[in-house]
Amino acid sequence: MGSSEVSIIPGLQKEEKAAVERRRLHVLKALKKLRIEADEAPVVAVLGSGGGLRAHIACLGVLSEMKEQGLLDAVTYLAGVSGSTWAISSLYTNDGDMEALEADLKHRFTRQEWDLAKSLQKTIQAARSENYSLTDFWAYMVISKQTRELPESHLSNMKKPVEEGTLPYPIFAAIDNDLQPSWQEARAPETWFEFTPHHAGFSALGAFVSITHFGSKFKKGRLVRTHPERDLTFLRGLWGSALGNTEVIREYIFARLLRLQESSQGEHPPPEDEGGEPEHTWLTEMLENWTRTSLEKQEQPHEDPERKGSLSNLMDFVKKTGICASKWEWGTTHNFLYKHGGIRDKIMSSRKHLHLVDAGLAINTPFPLVLPPTREVHLILSFDFSAGDPFETIRATTDYCRRHKIPFPQVEEAELDLWSKAPASCYILKGETGPVVMHFPLFNIDACGGDIEAWSDTYDTFKLADTYTLDVVVLLLALAKKNVRENKKKILRELMNVAGLYYPKDSARSCCLA
Q1: Are 452 and 445 a contacting pair, CB within 8 Å?
Q2: What is the pTM of this model?
């Protein structure tokens, strides 16, 4: 069990600092295997962008190939946004076994199964919480269907390999949706919220709470009421909630909940609106299937009513979800900084609740969480899984860093525009100070030739898991792996360069990179 107090200190949390220090020893051994000799280990961060199921699968491909090539063992931090967080969290729930993880992925998309009854049970159970929001519905009824997974483990379960240094230190990104106006106006750093196996909180404020107490109630920096640690299914829904941030989805959630209520009461549901949005019929079908299945379960004799949920609980859940849909309420959790005297910003300490959502709504990759000088990152491998402009994250991060005087490579807008027309597989960005950034667009001319648009259409962000056949999954995995494999020499060269640049006394040496 973690500390019951709120921690407000500058720099790294002591648990992260100790884990990173242990990781250095493993990184040095990995560098030696890669024929790079160094007395000190440079800090390397791998970033995965958002992109829904496409990012989930592609990020798994990247991690798998990095493991195969001996590169993952040289990484200190793994950070992700949205769909990439699903892949990164899977790495830890499988103890770093990429072969087993990849086999499980293929198995899930071969069988095309989804445990609807269990997902519904989890959602109804979540609806009993005072802080229930659409994130719970999204996590258990949508994301679980997309990924074919319903993980019940917790972030705190990842501590062992992290503290031993056998796996990189993971950081999962979200943003505080209540601070969106501050983000839009000034790109406020305190908008960003992070999760690790040890803590959750605002890195810009140095304000954290133990991950085991994320969601518990605090007042004046002290624990008031304990709530169980949220499971990974919920957190994946929170981290990957950008798809839910559209008015069209809002209308469909609300309309289908009304249909569910009418069906549950034995009324004949009204006919479909022929003028509805066809691209979102997946949600319609999901709710109709959910209605039919849940009612069938209720009619079965000898079923455990607590496990399946009574009709009363179902209706309470429908009503509560409808209220959340009308308010468009996402990511509600107790604000652990409520009434905290150590926070000067009264907006942060006066709110009883936070509303945390997908960080992709700010920047679709977690640069802001690895750029603070306290993490001392020397080399960033940025894997962009966007279906659109793969340099939008670079533009947004450049603007963010310029506003806050954070060292980051500067690239002219005209050059980014030129690159985006026919992106290559790797770009190396360097500034006078700050980390070196290697940026890897998923869809690029090196791997896709002239078919980038066709690849993007095949793996559109709004594609449903049902359209991801095994062949489609395998092709995407292979593409992501190829991007790593084809750029291994460039990665090794930059690893050697940063090792020599930041530790010049006994600068890094390489036997051969050819």
Answers
A1: yes
A2: 0.88
